[in-house]
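Exercise 7. Given the encoded structure of a 203-residue chain, write a plausible sequence.
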């Protein structure tokens, strides 16, 4: 809790400010500041920058009161905040991504709470660069996502998707009382901007 985490980045593969993987249960991730102090350039297809990443079959985690974005710990600079750019991705169907919070294959009998977080000023100028505030996929137990503020997300790439929140699949994902604004796709070829995107989920 209450850590300042900056410039987590690997140009050739995925990177995360905080990563919780298998065999971890009931973690509390609270009050952290996660940001990039300068523009990052990816050199690999499908590379993803995660602020907070949870990929585990255990549950009961709490992600609360974190701030992901801006370009310094004082929230006074926004120009370079978690921006990615690349000129090396030739195949636009192979996306690079930014996810503020990424939740995948979360499962147990205990509810997972993601609330009170601020996710802001995430942007991509990559040829193909999706941007998502909160992304969840494959949950098998209840996930409550509420009272989060998600704003100023953008991508200038081709065939890109920008979403405040994406529920790709899963059971009992409860998404409510969030504030989502300024979600923008500015690419010249078929950009998509969603406040909330829902795939095959049961709410």
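Solution.
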């Amino acid at each position: 809790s209450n850590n300042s985490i900056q410039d987590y980045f690997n140009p050739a593969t995925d990177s995360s400010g905080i990563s919780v993987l298998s065999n971890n249960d009931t973690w509390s991730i609270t009050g952290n500041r996660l940001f990039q102090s300068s523009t990052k350039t990816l050199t690999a297809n499908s590379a993803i920058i995660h602020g907070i990443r949870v990929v585990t079959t255990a549950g009961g985690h709490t992600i609360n009161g974190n701030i992901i974005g801006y370009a310094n710990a004082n929230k006074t600079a926004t120009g370079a905040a978690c921006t990615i750019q690349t000129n090396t991705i030739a195949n636009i169907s192979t996306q690079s991504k930014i996810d503020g919070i990424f939740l995948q294959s979360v499962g147990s009998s205990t509810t997972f709470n993601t609330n009170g977080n601020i996710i802001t000023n995430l942007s991509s100028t990559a040829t193909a660069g999706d941007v998502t505030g909160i992304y969840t996929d494959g949950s098998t137990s209840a996930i409550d996502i509420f009272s989060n503020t998600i704003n100023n997300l953008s991508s200038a790439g081709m065939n890109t998707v920008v979403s405040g929140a994406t529920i790709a699949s899963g059971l009992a994902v409860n998404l409510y009382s969030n504030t989502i604004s300024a979600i923008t796709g500015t690419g010249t070829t078929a950009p998509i901007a969603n406040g909330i995107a829902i795939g095959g989920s049961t709410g």
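Remark. The longest strand covers residues 129-139. Students should compare their own answers with the one above.
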